[in-house]
């Protein structure tokens, strides 16, 4: 129960209220459970604290209760929110209702007021106002009605809101008791948390006390353990000391043996060195001889080659003279020689193959013999089989049996003979030839481990090991497990002898399988838990078998533990060790058999070194998972020599003292060596070291220095002082050193060692017998009569201590001393060298520093440097005197009399105590008089002062001198001008003057302009700065007057040392009549070819001339400007990309004028042309280079082709030699040379760049240069100053303003230009898109490509083009990434015949690209080659056709597309034909052009081509085809010519007739309608063939005019037509016979019949009879002359018949009607 209570107490819910009012509880799940075994602690803590247990409530809130509280709080919050929301809705609705009621009251008042006005207006009878008031009254009434409706709806919503509010409050009040209980429980929960926190705090405090007590206990334990550790260490040290005493007995003997062995090695190496030197000299002589022989051989070979070439040339000439082909002859010889060489080579290879086969046979025989010896059981041997017959068994002794087993085992496991490399190679070849069988034969059959054990347990090796262990220094102090190793013996109960050859078949098969597995080297993969084992299967301890610091002849053993770290059972088999280690390493390893994972086995490694060399190798094993190896290393004893300090500092010492400093030479290696310690100051390191070095590490400078004349002379002097044998030896060594460049790396170290090393007595022996002049020590005097090197080296007071040479043993140290006995004052630096006899140890250098002084009183600083000082400035320093004497001394400080006015030492007299210091004060105040008083101590040109000072010491004859040095300089600062005149300046601008400020001192000086008036300014840094020595800087003095007056003042420059430098200034302030709203204009960063615009105002604030109330415009103290209109004019500088609008204007008093400034940055013309020239030059150079390479390639191809042709001719020359004439001598050769040495191609010459003037502004090169410059543009910033001239009065023409220069205003414009983000890359970068001429209504599209040349994405937008304009953007803009492109398509559709111009803006965040769109709308002009609007196709026979042509001429300036349409093909044709016929309506305007059509559904008229394009000024021929399928007089159709499928250009009608026969007549009046009848014509059957159709009728009316009682003759024409049939055109292709052909060839004729009655009536026909040719029309003239006595009022009517003869005979009846009419 307690645990549950604790959990409820420690639960900490955290709740927050979100936007929706829902309470969210968040808690950490880890804090929900605090129950543990220590819960009883809480009760104990509470009891100890003395708090009553009743403070915790008896009934705690459980977890479920807390969850319920959370949900209840959430629900209550929701209810509260609902109440608040609905209350808010109710209040808002109520407020809205009040507003509506107020508005209604307002409208009612307005309505009443308007009604009163209506009544008043009616009384006044104002009709206009009455109507207006009535309208207002009606509007107010409507608004009142609407507001009433709104009030009604609002009242309904208010009621609903109040109901909802009531419901929500009722719902919330239901939970009032629960809410009260919830609040109480939340308080209780908070109290529980506080209680839990207190309990937790007490628990933590208790744990802290426990931790502190544990810490104290731990510290006590550590103290006790440290004491025990000290006791144990003390005991170990005592044991080690005792062990050292025991081992020291054997140490001396061992060291003696080692020294003796080292001496022997040294002598042996010496002998080897001499031998190697002799070999090198011999090698040098051989190389020289070989070089001479090689030179002679090369010369002989050259002569021989020249002779052979001459012989070849002569032979070729001879063959040419004989008419042969030399190339062919020499080719044949060459091939014969090659065949002979191949033959010899084949024979040689054949002999080698035979020798190889014989060697293989011999090797195979030898291998078989070896097999028989090693494995005799595998071969048949009768003697051996006979010996296998066993005699009766006899009892033998046990000892003899064991001996027999041992000897038989040794015989059977004898080691295999190691083959030489040649034998191994031959054996491998034989194995590859013999196959797998032979591969098995040469392998050793695995022997059981029991037999191998006898090989390792050699009795002889064991006896040697036992004998050597008695004197082995590597014997361990304490015996361990490794001495208890026992060799493995074969168990007696196991007989592993090999089976005799007569084994069973099963045993042989098993043995064969085992051998095959071993032969294949099967490796088993281990897989455990799905993972395959990889890596080394066994871990060895130690990882590396290392025999360190071994002695030759001694034996060493190490035990190695192998652990199976694979996943499962594994095996381990020893394979062998590295070949080099077989003679020294012996492995004792018992195969453990099957080993589980984690098990270990042991291996004993024995090492008996026979040579003193480092050895490395591996011990190889094979496991079930694969082979592995253990590294093995054997290292000899070596010296490792170091010093504990490489620098010895004696400090400062008085002459006569004797000091000694020591350092320790430590040998950390196991090999001892002899050392020599000597001083080498001033000597060359190459002559002082005895250690051998490697010549390969020497630099070129070291080699040249060793071969220099100085070193040769030194060697000669050294050789003169030694014996003759040593001299000869040194010469040999020097000669060997000359061969450094040609010797091998292995002999370089030995050769150099021979030059440098001594013969065993060390360097000191040579230096003692050498002349002292050999050592060229810098800084030392050679006047000392010193005969020995030791005396010479001790002149500086430093020398070697008592130990100068000796021997340092292994793991030991030697203390060496350096003695310091100074005799001469001063600092001494010396180097000491410790050299060693060990050839692998380099010498160690020790540097020594000391300082010697000679008098008791001395000054620490012999030279007191005051650095750089200024005149009239005080400088102080301290002079410190030191007394090394043991008594107090009196001091007196003296200054030379020339400098006593400038230098002073205080105090002048003083006492210095014994072995202490005394400080004196030095004061230096240089004055200007130093130039006259300084004398020899002061240099007037450089300003350097060197003042000797003395300190006189009582009872000391020699004073203590020291020197005071200083460089004295002045502190002047100069201006480059004497005064500054700023001239006239307006109160709106500033005048800047530049001055130069120079520092005349050699010290830097800080300066500042102080006390400046408010209208003055000095820049930079507000007039403050630092002047470097002798530096001159530029300063800007800025004058900004505040009002119009005259200014006079002084500028004061003050230095840091409080010196003042003044310069007078003056200027005049001007108050102009006008002012600018902005004096400085800052344009935004504008991309190139973009536009930026800003605005400012010109203000005329001069409205009164009263100077006492406000400042008035004037120049200085001049006259006041008049009040009135004032004019201004802006003057733009040349080549300035700014535009000011307006430039000239007038401003009235108290007004202002707006000025707009436009900034359009563009590239200059010269820069563009320069870039264009550069690009053109680069293109020309590339073109010339390309042409040159092509020409070279063509020439090389041509030469190759010519050479091939010459060779081809040479081959064919022999065949044609008999027929061809022999060429002249040398003719062929000269021709070949002419081909080969053809004319050389000249390299491309320098390209002449084009002239700048030749590049026009509309050329592609010009726009390409603009694009290149825009991409390379880096941005620029320019400032422009625009003057604004001002004058009183109105302005006239620009440039004629009578202004005063002093009233000029200046406008400064800052123009930053940046790289445009977007450029045009299409059309060479042109920004003008010209659509050219486009027909009205036609659509033409063009594209323009832009590219983003910035380094970030750009979002493109376009400006809105004119909505009713012709230009339109087809595709939308988009986001462009860096270097991306976008192609915008723009269409142009002109609506009128004029030029259109519009600007398209492509906008980006950082700039705008302006594109100029232009195009011209053109109305197309087309003419037809037709004489009238009606084209008559004439008559044609049925089912035949007729063609006519006409042309469409394009007279416009652009090509057009035409489309020809027929009305008969229109979709509206049938709807139009449903109307009343035209002959009934008699309306010519609504005439339908479509007449009779074919019955077969095909068009009777056809126009080809019906559509096409006509170039500007061109024409197109159109062919009209008329093909009717039945006879009719009313064929017609309408033709409409449309341009661009939109505009109708022309309309005309086609008419035609179809006749059944070739002859017909026409003319007269129309007697029938032009619409074909819909009646069905009767069909003539065969029975009615004799039926004659009625004649055709023509109606002709003649009108005779009556004049003066006379009648004129009336005349009319009718036509007889003969139609040309298709039979005529088919005459050539048809059959010559046939009735149809005769009919087509026949012409027609006509004849009038019975004309006499008509002639009597006055009619006449001319001609009455005639022939009509096919395809022609014959007119017949009918005249009527009224006969005499004719009654003019009567109408004469008559008729006549005409017979037409063609393919058939037909009759026409002509009805004549004649009458007389008046004029």
Highlighted features:
single chain, 79 strands, six-stranded mixed beta sheet, disordered N terminus, 1719 residues, alpha+beta
Radius of gyration over alpha carbons? 67 Å
Kindly estimate the percentage of residues that lie in beta strands according to DSSP. Answer: 25-35%
Residue-averaged pLDDT? 77
Structural class: alpha+beta
The count of strands amounts to 79
- Helical residues, percent: 25-40%
Spans of 5+ residues with little confidence (pLDDT < 50)?
1-58, 392-501, 682-792, 1214-1238, 1624-1641
Major sheet size, sense and barrel closure: 6 strands, mixed
The helix tally amounts to 29
Spatial gap, N to C terminus: 149 Å
| Shape annotation | extended
Task: Give an overview of the whole structure.
This protein has 1719 residues and is α+β, with helices and mostly antiparallel strands. 33% of the residues lie in helices and 30% in strands. The protein is built from 29 helices and 79 strands. The strands form 19 sheets. Strands 32, 34, 36, 38, 39 and 44 form a six-stranded mixed sheet that branches. Strands 41, 42, 45, 47, 49 and 50 form a six-stranded mixed sheet that branches. The protein has a six-stranded mixed sheet with strand order 72-71-79-78-74-76, with no helix packed on it. A hairpin with a 7-residue loop joins strand 20 (826-836) and strand 21. Helix 2 (40-49) crosses helix 5, helix 3 (63-124) runs antiparallel to helix 4 (127-173) and helix 22 (1165-1213) packs across helix 24 (1260-1272). The longest helix is centred in the N-terminal third of the chain and has 146 residues, at 176-321. It is extended and about 195 Å long.
């Amino acid at each position: 129960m307690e645990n549950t209570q604790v959990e409820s107490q420690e639960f900490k819910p955290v709740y927050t209220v979100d936007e929706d009012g829902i309470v969210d509880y968040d808690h950490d799940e880890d804090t929900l459970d605090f129950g543990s075994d220590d819960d009883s602690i809480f009760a104990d803590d509470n009891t100890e604290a003395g708090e009553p247990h009743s403070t915790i409530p008896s009934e705690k809130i459980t977890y479920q209760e807390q969850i319920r509280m959370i949900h209840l709080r959430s629900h209550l919050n929701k209810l509260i929110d609902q109440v608040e929301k609905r209350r808010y809705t109710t209040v808002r609705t109520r407020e809205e209702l009040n507003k509506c009621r107020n508005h209604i009251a307002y409208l009612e008042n307005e309505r009443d007021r308007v009604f009163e006005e209506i009544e008043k207006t009616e009384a006044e009878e104002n009709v206009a106002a009455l109507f207006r008031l009535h309208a207002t009254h009606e509007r107010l009434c409507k608004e009142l009605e609407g507001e009433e409706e709104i009030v009604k709806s609002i009242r309904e919503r208010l009621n609903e809101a109040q109901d909802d509010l009531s419901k929500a409050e009722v719902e919330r009040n239901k939970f009032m008791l629960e809410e009260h209980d919830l609040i109480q429980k939340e308080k209780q929960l908070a109290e529980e948390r506080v209680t839990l926190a207190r309990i937790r705090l007490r628990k933590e405090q208790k744990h802290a006390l426990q931790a502190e007590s544990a810490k104290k206990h731990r510290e006590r334990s550590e103290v006790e353990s440290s004491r025990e550790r000290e006791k144990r260490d003390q005991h170990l040290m005592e044991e080690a000391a005792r062990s050292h005493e025991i081992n020291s007995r054997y140490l001396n003997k061992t060291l003696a043996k080692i020294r003796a062995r080292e001496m022997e090695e040294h002598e042996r190496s010496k002998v080897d060195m001499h031998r190697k030197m002799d070999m090198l000299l011999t090698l040098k002589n051989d190389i020289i001889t070989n070089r001479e022989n090689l030179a002679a051989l090369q010369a002989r070979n050259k002569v021989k080659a020249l002779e052979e070439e001459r012989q070849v040339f002569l032979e070729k000439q001879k063959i040419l003279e004989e008419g042969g082909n030399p190339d062919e002859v020499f080719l044949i010889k060459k091939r014969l020689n090659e065949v002979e060489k191949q033959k010899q080579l084949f024979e040689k290879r054949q002999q080698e193959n035979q020798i190889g086969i014989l060697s293989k046979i011999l090797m195979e025989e030898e291998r078989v013999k070896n097999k028989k010896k090693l494995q005799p059981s595998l071969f048949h041997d009768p003697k051996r089989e006979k010996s296998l017959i066993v005699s009766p068994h006899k009892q033998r002794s046990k000892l003899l049996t064991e001996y027999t087993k041992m000897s038989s085992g040794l015989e059977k496991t004898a080691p295999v003979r190691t083959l030489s490399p040649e034998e191994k190679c031959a054996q491998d070849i034989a194995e590859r030839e013999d196959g797998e069988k032979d591969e098995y034969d040469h392998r050793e059959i695995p022997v059981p481990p029991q037999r191998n054990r006898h090989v390792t347990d050699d009795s002889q090796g064991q006896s040697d090991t036992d004998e050597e262990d008695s004197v082995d220094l590597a014997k361990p102090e304490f015996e361990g497990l490794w001495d208890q190793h026992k060799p493995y013996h074969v168990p007696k109960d196991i007989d592993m002898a090999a089976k005799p050859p007569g084994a069973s078949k099963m045993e042989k098969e098993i043995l064969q399988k085992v051998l095959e597995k071993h032969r294949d080297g099967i490796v088993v993969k281990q897989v455990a838990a799905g993972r395959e084992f990889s890596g080394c299967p066994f871990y060895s301890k130690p990882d590396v078998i290392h025999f360190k610091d071994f002695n030759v002849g001694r034996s060493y053993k190490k035990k190695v533990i192998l652990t199976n770290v694979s996943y499962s059972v594994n095996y381990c088999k020893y394979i062998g060790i590295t070949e080099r280690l077989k003679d020294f390493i012996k492995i004792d390893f018992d195969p453990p058999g099957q080993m589980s994972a984690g098990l270990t086995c042991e291996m004993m490694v024995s090492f008996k070194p026979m040579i003193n060399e480092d050895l490395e190798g591996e011990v190889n094993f094979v496991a079930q998972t694969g082979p592995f190896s253990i590294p093995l290393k054997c290292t000899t004893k070596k010296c490792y020599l170091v010093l504990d300090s490489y620098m010895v500092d004696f400090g400062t010492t008085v002459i006569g003292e004797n000091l000694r400093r020591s350092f320790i030479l430590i040998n950390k290696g196991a090999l001892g060596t002899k050392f020599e310690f000597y001083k080498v100051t001033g000597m060359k390191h190459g002559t002082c070291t005895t250690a051998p070095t490697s010549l390969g590490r020497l630099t070129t400078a070291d080699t040249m220095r060793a071969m220099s004349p100085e070193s040769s002379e030194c060697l000669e002097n050294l050789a003169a002082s030694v014996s003759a044998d040593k001299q000869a030896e040194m010469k040999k060594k020097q000669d060997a050193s000359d061969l450094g460049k040609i010797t091998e790396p292995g002999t370089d170290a030995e050769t150099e060692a021979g030059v440098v090393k001594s013969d065993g007595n060390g360097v000191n022996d040579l230096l003692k017998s050498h002349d002292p002049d050999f050592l060229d020590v810098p800084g030392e005097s050679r006047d000392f009569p010193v005969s020995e090197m030791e005396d010479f080296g001790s002149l500086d007071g430093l020398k070697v201590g008592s130990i100068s040479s000796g021997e340092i043993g292994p793991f030991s140290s030697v203390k060496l001393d350096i003695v310091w006995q100074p005799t001469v004052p001063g600092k001494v630096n010396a180097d000491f060298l410790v050299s060693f006899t060990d050839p692998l140890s380099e010498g160690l250098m020790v540097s020594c520093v000391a300082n010697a002084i000679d008098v008791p009183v001395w000054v620490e600083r012999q030279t007191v440097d005051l650095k750089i000082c200024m005149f009239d400035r005080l400088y102080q320093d301290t002079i410190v005197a030191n007394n090394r004497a043991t008594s107090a001394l009196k001091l007196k400080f003296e200054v030379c009399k020339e400098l006593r006015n400038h230098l002073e030492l205080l105090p002048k007299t003083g006492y210095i105590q014994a072995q202490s210091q005394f400080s004196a004060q030095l004061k230096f105040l240089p004055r200007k008089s130093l130039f006259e008083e300084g004398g020899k101590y002061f240099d007037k040109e450089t300003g350097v002062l060197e003042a000797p000072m003395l300190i006189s010491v009582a009872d000391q004859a020699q004073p203590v001198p020291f020197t005071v040095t200083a460089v004295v300089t002045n502190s002047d600062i100069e201006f480059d001008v004497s005064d500054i005149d700023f001239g006239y300046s307006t109160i709106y601008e500033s005048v800047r003057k530049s001055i130069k400020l120079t520092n005349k001192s050699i010290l830097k000086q800080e300066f500042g302009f102080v006390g400046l008036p408010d209208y003055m300014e000095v820049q930079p840094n507000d007039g403050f700065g630092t002047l470097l020595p002798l530096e001159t800087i530029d300063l800007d003095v800025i004058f900004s007057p505040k009002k119009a007056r005259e200014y006079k003042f002084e500028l004061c420059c003050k230095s840091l040392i409080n010196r003042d430098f003044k310069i007078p200034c003056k200027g005049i302030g001007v108050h102009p009549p006008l002012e600018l709203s902005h004096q400085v204009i800052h344009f935004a960063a504008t991309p190139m070819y973009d536009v930026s615009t800003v605005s400012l105002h010109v203000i005329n604030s001069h409205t009164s001339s009263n100077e006492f109330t406000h400042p008035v415009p004037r120049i200085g103290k001049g006259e006041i400007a008049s009040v009135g209109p004032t004019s201004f004019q802006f003057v733009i500088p040349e080549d300035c990309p700014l535009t000011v609008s307006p430039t000239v204007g007038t401003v009235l008093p108290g007004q202002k004028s707006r000025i707009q400034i436009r900034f359009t940055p563009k590239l200059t013309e010269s820069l563009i042309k320069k870039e264009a020239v550069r690009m053109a030059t680069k293109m020309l150079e590339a073109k010339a280079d390309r042409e040159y390479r092509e020409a070279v390639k063509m020439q090389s191809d041509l030469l190759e082709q010519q050479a091939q042709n010459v060779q081809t001719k040479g081959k064919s020359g022999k065949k044609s030699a008999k027929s061809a004439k022999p060429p002249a001598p040398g003719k062929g050769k000269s021709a070949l040379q002419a081909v080969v040495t053809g004319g050389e191609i000249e390299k491309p010459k320098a390209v002449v760049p084009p002239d700048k003037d030749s590049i026009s502004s509309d050329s592609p090169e010009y726009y390409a240069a603009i694009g290149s410059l825009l991409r390379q543009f880096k941005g620029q910033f320019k400032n422009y100053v625009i003057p604004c001239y001002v004058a009183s009065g109105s302005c006239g023409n620009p440039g004629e303003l009578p202004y005063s220069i002093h009233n000029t205003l200046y406008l400064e414009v800052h123009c930053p230009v940046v790289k445009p983000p977007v450029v045009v890359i299409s059309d060479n970068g042109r920004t003008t898109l010209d659509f050219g001429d486009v027909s009205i209504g036609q659509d033409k599209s063009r594209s323009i490509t832009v590219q983003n040349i910035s380094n970030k994405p750009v979002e493109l937008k376009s400006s809105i083009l004119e909505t009713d304009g012709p230009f339109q953007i087809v595709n939308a803009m988009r986001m462009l990434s860096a270097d991306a492109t976008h192609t915008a398509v723009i269409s142009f559709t002109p609506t009128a015949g004029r030029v259109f111009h519009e600007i398209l803006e492509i906008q980006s965040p950082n700039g705008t690209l302006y594109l100029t769109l232009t195009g011209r709308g053109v109305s197309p002009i087309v003419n037809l080659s037709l004489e009238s609007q009606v084209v008559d196709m004439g008559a044609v026979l049925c089912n035949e056709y007729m063609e006519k042509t006409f042309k469409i001429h394009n007279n416009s300036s652009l090509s057009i597309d035409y489309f020809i349409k027929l009305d008969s093909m229109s979709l509206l044709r049938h709807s139009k034909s449903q109307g009343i016929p035209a002959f009934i309506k008699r309306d010519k305007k609504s005439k339908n052009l479509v007449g009779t059509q074919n019955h077969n559904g095909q068009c009777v008229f056809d126009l080809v081509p019906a559509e096409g394009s006509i170039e500007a000024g061109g024409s197109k021929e159109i062919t009209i085809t008329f093909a009717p399928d039945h006879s009719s007089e009313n064929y017609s159709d309408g033709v409409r010519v449309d341009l661009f499928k939109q505009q109708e250009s022309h309309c005309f009608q086609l008419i035609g007739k179809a006749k059944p026969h070739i002859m017909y007549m026409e003319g007269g009046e129309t007697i029938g309608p032009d619409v074909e009848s819909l009646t069905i014509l009767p069909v003539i059957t065969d029975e009615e063939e004799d039926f004659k159709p009625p004649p055709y009728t023509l109606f002709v009316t003649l009108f005779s005019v009556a004049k003066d009682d006379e009648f004129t003759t009336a005349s009319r024409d009718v036509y007889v037509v003969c139609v040309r049939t298709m039979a005529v055109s088919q005459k050539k292709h048809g059959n010559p016979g046939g009735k149809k052909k005769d009919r087509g060839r026949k012409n027609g004729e006509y004849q009038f019949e019975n004309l006499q009655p008509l002639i009597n009536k006055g009619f006449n026909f001319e001609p009455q009879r005639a022939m009509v040719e096919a395809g022609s029309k014959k007119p017949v003239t009918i005249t009527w002359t009224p006969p005499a006595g004719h009654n003019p009022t009567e109408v004469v009517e008559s008729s006549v018949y005409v017979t037409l003869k063609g393919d058939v005979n037909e009759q026409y009846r002509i009805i004549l009607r004649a009458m007389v009419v008046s004029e």
